[in-house]
Write a structure and sequence with these properties.
five-stranded parallel sheet, 22 helices, N-(1-d-carboxylethyl)-l-norvaline Dehydrogenase, domain 2, alpha/beta, Rossmann fold
Amino acid sequence: MTERSTLRLTAAALPRLRERGEVAVPDYDRSAITAGIAHVGVGGFHRAHQAKAIDDLLRAGLARDWGIVGIGLMPGDAAMRDALAAQDHLYTLVEKRGETDLQARVIGSIVDYLFAPEDPGVVLERLADPAIRIVSLTVTEGGYNINQVTGEFMLDDPHVAHDLGSGLPETVFGYITAALRLRRERGIRPFTVMSCDNLQDNGVVARRAILTFARAKDPELADWIGAHVAFPNSMVDRITPVTTDADRAALADGFGVEDAWPVVAEPFFQWVLQDTFTDGRPPYEEAGVQVVTDVTPYELMKLRLLNSSHQGLCYFGALMGYHYAHDATMNPLVSRLLLEYMEREAGPTLRPIPGIDLEVYRPQLIERFSNPAIGDTVARLCAESSDRIPKWLLPVVREQLEHPDPQVALSAAIVASWARYAEGVDEQGRPIDVVDRLKERVMAAAARQGEDPLAFLRDEELFDDLADRPAFTGPYLRALGLLHEVGAEKTLEAVLADLP
């Protein structure tokens, strides 16, 4: 592609972009679209996934009353509000099929965006609007305020405690509960709460969080929510790296579009959704969504194969000095670690998955991770490990430990690589920026490993009793010792050589 004059993305620019024919633009009348979905947590993944699916439906002449109003609760969400508002809530989705094979389309399914800290009352009224029939969530794995070990919602969180008092809410739990109260008082049917986060049984988790909060606030209201509100489970999958300035420049140079916050993604798209809704839903199946009665087999597959494999490659990759996930995956030791882990340890814990051939799925994951056009960073995959490892990898470990001959050597090596990574310096002596809500805690534990090799595992909130399980601590200590003595690459060689 050659460099050309750029057009700032706005509704007024769509006719010109349509004439150029290089970027697919909405062919529907956005002024006729009404919001039926309120989405909390509008980031890259939501815009590459759920909002893309609604845009597909709108382009097919469907779901005209299922547009999306975004809602930002966190102070940092003001940036998204400003970027979208300046572009009439349009943005560009770029699918990267290869380093030179890019496809761009303008997404028009987000019709409004509300920044809650600016006016909580406006957000509450929008959530109470009868037109809103789904409230969907991508608030990250840690956003559900669930204790990692007990599985219980934490009422002592200071923001939750604020919302349990009087006044306007701050948290997603406070907003949803307050909005449902308004709808009940006004005789309006409740909305569905649809979690789209990378959590096993994400609908169950969302239900537990909302009901626990509501019961502490108003037991009668909690009973009503429990009886009338649907919380479907879902499994979502699309690699969506953080947008960079290089992505913005490539969009401007290659397609002539100036977009303050485009989103990039791989071509692969999967969404499996439980068909249980309070007040209707869009015809998601017309957008390639698998609408099923039981999501569990699919979500276990994704969490224990894809998500856990991301953790398998990222810490070893970071310690070896890789910046991008595709470079780390193309190291034959890393790719073999992932394939062996998926087949030997995670695979036996899965249930039958209708329509999925794991012999195809496993190598397909390696191909996806190896796509250099995505530019997914190792650092992104390493972030928020204290939320991810306990939910994705450790369930595999616990299930394996129930068997007489547990296969946990590779899982143990992955946990050991996290423990080594949390020391905050790579093998070249360069500092590692550990991004984690429990950063100080995990780094302090990692710092004690010289005097107590099991110090990292002794955090029972994260690891329960794993520090007392020799079947796990044996391979864990071997991998951790090797990581300190010979480095990540030699550790992988040794761990893989040990496999029967």
